[in-house]
Amino acid sequence: MDIHSHCPEKVLDPEKAVTKIKNGSRVFVGTGCGEPQKLIHAMVQDRTIQDIVVYQMLSSTFSNYVDDEFFLNRFSLKLFFISQAMRQAAFEGKIDYIPAYLSQIPELFHSQRIGLDVALVQISPPDRFGYCSLGISVDITLAGMMNAGMIIAQINPNMPRTWGDSFIHVNEIDYLVDYEEPLCEALPTSKNVDIVERISGFVNQLVHDGATLQVGFGHLPDSILPYLENKKDLGLHTQVITNGFLPLLRKGVITNKKKTLLQGRIVCSLCMGSAELYDYLDNNPLFYFRSSEFVNDPNQIARNDNLISISSALEVDLTGQISTDSKGYLFYSGIGDQVDFLRGSKLSKGGFSIIALPSTAQNGEVSRIVPHLSEGAGVATTRGDVDIVVTEYGIAELHGKGIYQRVMELAQIAHPKFREELINEAKKRHYIFADQLPPTKQDLIFLEKYKYYLRLPDEKTIEFRPLLPSDEFASRNFFYSLQETTIYYRFFQRRKVFSRDMLQKHWAEVDYKRNMTIIGLTQKGQRKVIVAIGSYADSDEKEGYAEVAFVVREDLQDQGIGSYLLSILESIARENGFQGFIATVLSENTKMIHVFKKRYSGARIKMSGGGDVEIHMPFKDEKE
Known about the structure:
Elements: H1 3-6, H2 14-18, E1 26-29, H3 37-45, E2 52-56, H4 69-74, E3 75-79, H5 87-91, E4 96-97, H6 105-110, E5 116-123, E6 131-133, H7 141-146, E7 148-155, E8 167-169, E9 175-178, H8 193-206, E10 212-215, H9 219-224, E11 235-236, E12 240-241, H10 246-250, E13 266-268, E14 270-271, H11 275-281, E15 287-289, H12 292-295, H13 298-301, E16 307-312, E17 315-317, E18 322-323, E19 326-327, E20 330-331, H14 338-347, E21 352-356, E22 360-361, E23 366-367, E24 369-370, E25 388-391, E26 394-397, H15 403-413, H16 416-428, E27 452-455, E28 461-466, H17 472-481, H18 484-491, H19 500-508, E29 515-524, E30 527-538, E31 545-552, H20 561-575, E32 580-586, H21 590-599, E33 604-607, E34 612-618
Parallel strand pairs: 1-2, 1-5, 2-3, 3-4, 5-7, 7-9, 10-11, 10-16, 12-14, 13-15, 16-21, 17-24, 21-25, 31-32
Antiparallel strand pairs: 6-8, 17-18, 19-20, 22-23, 25-26, 27-28, 28-29, 29-30, 30-31, 32-34, 33-34
């Protein structure tokens, strides 16, 4: 449709169009990279326009003016999310931040709680039927436009035409400005590459094939995406599409085949990236753009089975409270979509959420895992909302766990130099026992190579990994699950109580070299349970040898788990310079003796007078 012949009375140049804005107006402006730059510049540069209140989610163009006192005297900026470009202005009190869940912002307009006189938006050229697309900015823009008294739209040929609820007919628009210019771009930046790689490795372990992903605002969540290239049939239901998704789309990692809501379609609301990304979206039916009240509605999110939310944070305290929108009293970003998707993922069948963040800030001088949130920091995500927290030092699973366990999980993934301090602060607050031992100060990233998987005949998989301080409660449950005879064979006594002191010392003595413990876990519902434990420790009896012992839960015995666990322990022991194992076994424990003799044909069995035998098992030459 040719707007110049269809509705010439509506077509104005930018400077003439903004004169329609009356002084004192409440003006909505389209979001982020979809904002109408030319209309913004024209409005600001018309000095007769006074006392304007601007509502916007992500703002870029106004950052060119926030240091101008004359601009600040004429315009009041109210933002639902503080972009990086506007952060300094927020620190200096030059803009007003409106905390709100993204899913609920459209209702603020629909209900007239926030009244709007004018909407400035950017659209694609009309098709032959007269329909224009909001393109890369549907989010809250659709609701803002629908509830404004007057709509001024900049028609830009560079705006992609996107599918979904993004269309508006030219007849519904009051004034049209035909002006072509490059769209705003939000290009990815590379920083803290080593930290991103480590965090991404842990996130990769948590994301399974066929999952539907949401990826939140921010550099870190977007940087994680390239590390998911080994996954299959991922789906997307997410607020914002960024350049990070392009490689996954082009390599067929994202297929949306396993989605349970709008299968085969990417559900999104906003796009922020490069011209290359905008070209990819243009008239692409794979993408289904909906407003934030749909995309961010936890009930709609939950209609996606296996929904995994990945977002970030500024701080996490030892109880699991999370701050995302402020650094102390300084407003830094916004509530955004995090809480919506955390709650939606929790309602999703098989879904969960991941909060990923570096363990430190300010060049390693400040811990992001803290005893308490900074004074003035806002609690965007409550203790009850968080599932999993990931740093470059590991994974902390918090959902369903008490404060004691949360402290141990989070201290374990804090930067090593802050762990003891965090434990001491937790003791002062009576979060943990006064005699609680702190996690090791080692960087345990090397333990990632000690992860193994064994598929049993019934298709059940056993995951093996080193014991960590956070496993104390799970190991307690394991020992209490064993039958009396199994306990007797393992400990040579009919032990009735597995004290906290005993279990704590067990993990505290593990240095992962001279002393190692490997646990075997299976999935039980939404959690993993320990079903086997094997250990070796430097022997006082014979130099170069380590004392070894293991125990497997009764219902899983005779399936090769003990032999596999023994092979893992041997591999690690060899790496750390040991030449063989020594085991003390009750003579009546024929199953255990058989396992040792089967693996070590050169084993020497020494009888003792106390009803047990000592088995010396030199490792075979690896060349044999």
